[in-house]
Amino acid sequence: MTFHPWVDGYLTTLLCGEGDIEKMVLHILNQTKNQQMDNETTLREFMQSVWNEKNVANISKYLAEEYTVYLDNADPWEGKTLNVNEFETRLNYTFNSFPDIHFDIKTAVSDGNLVAITWVMTGTNTGKIGEFPATNKKIEANGTTIYHFVDRKICGHTQVYDRTTIMKQLGFIK
After folding, report:
1. DSSP symbols for 1-46
2. Which residue, 117, 92, 93, 122, is CA-closest to 107?
3. pLDDT by residue (tens digit) across 62-104?
4. Domain extents for the chain?
5. CATH topology for 2-169?
6. pTM score
7. How many Å apart are CA 1 and CA 15, to the nearest integer?
8. What average pLDDT does the segment 41-50 reach?
9. Which of 52, 82, 118, 123 could covalently link to 101 via disulfide, CB atoms 3.0 to 4.6 Å apart?
10. What is the rounded CA–CA span in Å between residue 74 and residue 72?
11. Three-state SS letters, 37-78
């Protein structure tokens, strides 16, 4: 047997002889495809269980020990790295403002340790948003989020969405 060095995080063991390179390439491609599918499945479960069903107790099932909000304009946690408890605080902040918040994933694309989704967010504002009072108005906005993964757990996100439309729908700006 020949032991090959770490390739893409996997120790590849191949038999000597003709076809070893092809076997190695196929093994790597299959492992990468499986990881991408696992990451996308994990993300879809996370969005459904934690965000849509508000099962905050399930956070640690999906999140790495550290979660970084790389880019998320106007998010108080932008640029910060959170532990699981701090992420729960972030969730509850949103759930207090929009208890019925719901994300409908429209597309998902996986590439290595990244899963990008486009989504439509809906909800009713029944709690304060920072210093803004509750309006009891419904919102609907489109967005895109790139989730980062490490060891098949979500470790951060980069996100853009139409906050201006939300502020207009709530009556805070014209």
Report:
1. -EEEEEETTEEEEE-SSTTHHHHHHHHHHHHHHHHHHHHHHHHHHH
2. 117
3. 999 999 999 988 889 999 999 999 999 999 999 999 999 999 9
4. 2-169
5. Nuclear Transport Factor 2; Chain: A, (3.10.450)
6. 0.78
7. 5
8. 97
9. 123
10. 6
11. HHHHHHHHHHHHHHHHCCCHHHHHHHEEEEEEEEEECCCCCC
